[in-house]
């Protein structure tokens, strides 16, 4: 079960809370980017960032030069992941909505410095964004390893909210039936692989790229 702390308790539409920890894992595993929120120089800063999950640890990484990651180290951060599942068309404009699954995580982002643990974090990130690439692509060299920072965030304090419903029209709008109502599903799909122009001839698109769903 997910924790319910004051700041992870839904204020509105409480029935949309999902408290099963496996739902958090599912949102994180399906999403591809998160938004990392930090307070930098007293001002909120929210940046799109890659991530990966191993158990109840979320890994973030970036250049050692990225000030947002430097700011996040050892400080409280807020990370969100959102999956948009559909646009909900209602009979009234006011009742239009979205179907979604989203996660909000609070915690202290811990720098991962021990080499083996840091390499593991990089593998988790790679396996999430580009499964199969850790085995297929050239391994990280010492210079690259030194130039990247990895942060680990415990998934102890998190909430999941979801909407998976049709339109919620007022009875009088339903009765009047004056507009189309329903859901237009939204999906993220992988397109046709586009080989790099500088690949030598003879390369087939590898299965871990071609077969990705
Ligand atoms: C899909 C996606 C995935 C990404 N994954 C990673 C990742 O895994 N690791 C990583 O380090 N970075 C990632 N980035 C880039 C990340 O968003 C930051 O740009 C980067 O980390 C540099 O951050 P910084 O702290 O140096 O920001 P700075 O460059 O110091 O920010 C200064 C200002 O630049 C602007 N800015 C910075 N980044 C963005 C942005 N992405 N979009 C619009 N304006 C911006 C903002 O106004 C910000 O206040 C990703 C971006 C995208 C879109």
UniProtKB/TrEMBL annotation:
Chain segments carrying region Disordered: 191-213
Pfam families recorded: Pyridox_ox_2 (PF12900)
Transmembrane segments: none
InterPro entries: Pyridox_Oxase-rel, Split_barrel_FMN-bd
Superkingdom of the organism of origin: Bacteria
Stretches assigned to coiled coil: none
Name this protein carries in UniProt: Pyridoxamine 5'-phosphate oxidase family protein
Originating species: Amycolatopsis nalaikhensis
């Amino acid at each position: 079960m997910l924790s319910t702390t004051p700041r992870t308790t839904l204020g509105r539409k409480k029935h949309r809370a999902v408290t099963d920890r496996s739902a958090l894992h599912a949102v994180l595993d399906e999403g591809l980017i998160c938004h990392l929120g930090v307070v930098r120089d007293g001002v909120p800063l929210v940046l799109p960032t890659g991530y990966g999950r191993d158990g109840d640890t979320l890994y973030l990484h970036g250049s050692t030069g990225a000030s947002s990651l430097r700011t996040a180290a050892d400080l409280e951060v807020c990370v969100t992941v959102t999956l948009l599942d559909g646009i909900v068309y209602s009979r009234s404009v006011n009742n239009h909505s979205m179907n979604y699954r989203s996660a909000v995580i609070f915690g202290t982002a811990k720098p991962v410095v021990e080499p083996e643990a840091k390499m593991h974090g990089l593998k988790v990130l790679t396996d999430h964004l580009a499964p199969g690439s850790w085995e297929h692509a050239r391994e990280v060299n010492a210079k690259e390893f030194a130039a990247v920072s990895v942060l680990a965030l415990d998934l102890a304090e998190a909430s999941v909210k979801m909407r998976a419903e049709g339109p919620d029209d007022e009875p009088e709008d339903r009765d009047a039936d004056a507009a189309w109502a329903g859901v237009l599903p939204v999906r993220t799909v992988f397109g046709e692989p586009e080989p790099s122009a500088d690949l030598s001839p003879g390369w087939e698109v590898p299965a871990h790229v071609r077969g990705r769903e």
